[in-house]
Each structure stands twice: as C-alpha cells, then as structure tokens.
Amino acid sequence: MLKIGELEFCDKPVFLAPMEDVTDPSFRYMCKKFGADLMFTEFISVDGLIRDAKKSLKKLDIFDYERPVGIQIYGHIPEAMEQASLMINKNANPDLLDINYGCPVKKIATRGAGAGMMRNLALMKEITEKVVKSSKFPVTAKTRLGWDSESLNVEEVALLLQDCGIQAITIHGRSRVQMYKGEADWNLIGKVKNNQNIKIPIIGNGDITSAKNAEEKFNKYGVDAIMIGRAAIGKPWIFAEVKHFLNTRKHLASPGVVERVEYAKEHLQKSLDYKENKRGVYEMRRHFALYFKAIPDFRDTKIKLLSAQTSEEILEILNFIQEKYGKYDSNFFEDYENNEN
C-alpha cells in the first residue's frame, strides 16, 4: 500500500496532474467523480501568492469532497518559497504540498523555476530544505528527466530530494527541452524506482492515455502510482476506465454522446458555481473541444460551441448535440479510441 505522510492509498493508485488553467475545482470535481485517488490544484506562483495576487490566492480553494488534494507551488527564490509555504500553512488546508521542478514553459524554466531547477541542484536543495522545514504538510516534488538529452540527471535529483525530506516524487518522462513532444521515456522512470537507495514512492507521469498502457506502466516499471495529465482533459472518466481495468482486466464501456452531454452540463454547472458566468463559460472551452472530439462532421457545431458567450447558449448547443449526434454510442467511441491508441 502506498503511503505519503499519513495518507494511505489503494494498490496502484491513479492521480490527477496539476495543470495551469485546467485543474480548477470544477475539473477536479469531475475527476473525483470518476475515481481520481489524489488531485492537485493548478500550480501557483509563489511571487503572486506572497503579493496577495487575487488569482493566486483563489487557487488555494479546496473543498472537502475532493480530498485528498495537494497544492503545488513554483518559484526560484528560497525565501519566497519558504514564505509561500508558511502562507499555505496559515490560509489553506491541503493534504500535502508539492514543489514544481518540472514545468517546461519558457517564461518559468528559463528564469530558473520549474524544470529550470534541474540545472541548479544547489538551489534546488536550498529551496527544498526550506519548504520541508516550514511546511506542516507532507512535501512532495514533481520533476522531469533533466534539462535536455545530454543532462538526464533525474536519478541524482531523486536522491537529493529524498535526502532533503521529500516524501514522494513524480517524474514526467521527458526532458525540459522536449516540452510535450516525442515519447515519454519510462525506462529512466523505472531506473529511479528500482534504485536500491530510493526509499520513497515514485510516481510515473507521461503518455498515459488508456487503461491498457496504465497497466503496462505499473507492471513493467514498478512505479508506486501513475499520474494522468493531458489525457484527462475532456475525458475525466479516464480514471474510472483505468481503475476498472486494473481491478478486473475488463474494459469499462466508454460513454456515448448522450452521457457525454450530461457530463459536460454537470462540468459547466460546477464551473459556473465557482466562477462568474463569463469566465466560467470561457474556461470550459478547452474541455468542450475534447468531450466530443471523435464525432464526424462536427466542425460547425464545434465552432459554435467554442464561440458561445453565455451558459444559455452552451446549454442550447449541448441539447442540439444530444439530439443530432445521440446515435454515436459507447461502441463508436471505443472503436475510435482503439484505433487512436
């Protein structure tokens, strides 16, 4: 059984990755509905947090129904990271605190935060020690394989983080330079997991898009948990599919259009509950684009859906989708996904 601090998880747990402008409370609600074992907030800039920036503070919102849940922070100044940790101690109540050493985005990584920290292990050590010492919550970290193909130092990083008191490490199987291109290298993730000096849980992340390859990651590389990111956007039921397959070795039926419309409506309502109408509608667009991804001859309807300005417009379009495309059932989507994977 996997343990992180006092948190205990089932065998082969499946986690939701932190994603900027994606893993807000409405999306987390949907992923929890389908069985995500641990979820994370959007990652939070410590600079924004200690300046009391409204957007950053809003990301601290956590609801009891989504537990266990972690807050992820990033930054490159040790004192700011420590201060943010203390603020979270005072103003939020997550189940754990995660340090982002993996974000590849240029404006973050090139200033030394996120995956940029892979090139400055002395600074990584200083920051990690300060956060661990100041946090009353278990501290974990998320990282990449290295900066580029010539500096894949994740094994060294994992040992350093363990020595600093990190209680679990998530490894995304790409370098910073790769961004999200090419295939994730799980061999290096497995090498870290099987290093006899690594005593803390290793969570694997990257290219988990189906129940079958989720099972493969567990069985082939021995990771303690897997983390799903982009594959859950527009498909929060992937957690139910993966967990069902791991438990039964049978595939769970993929939802057809009728069910997808109902899930989209539920997701929209949760977004509106949490945000004002305009923002709640706007931030749903990336999800709607993928809820109905496989439907043939959908371009015009998709454009209308992604350009709708109000919740009333969206609900009208969703009802139209259900009526016009309702014939596309579970079998249709399963065939599509089998061909895609």
Overall pLDDT metric: 94
Q: What is the number of strand segments?
A: 11
Largest sheet: 9 strands, parallel
* Alpha carbon gyration radius: 20 Å
- Taking pLDDT < 50 over at least 5 consecutive residues as the criterion, the unreliable ranges are none
Q: What is the end-to-end distance?
A: 30 Å
Shape: globular
Question: Percent range for helical residues?
Answer: 40-55%
Query: What fraction of residues sit in β-strands?
Result: 5-15%
Put simply, the count of helices is: 16
**What is the CATH homologous superfamily assignment of the largest domain?**
Aldolase class I
Helix-strand category? alpha/beta
Overview of the molecule:
The protein is of the alpha/beta class and 341 residues long. It has two domains: 246 residues, TIM Barrel (Alpha-Beta Barrel), CATH 3.20.20; 74 residues. It is 46% helix and 12% strand. The chain is built from 16 helices and eleven strands. The strands form two sheets. Strands 3, 4, 5, 6, 7, 8, 9, 10 and 11 form a nine-stranded parallel sheet that branches. The longest helix is centred in the C-terminal third of the chain and has 18 residues. The mean pLDDT is 94.
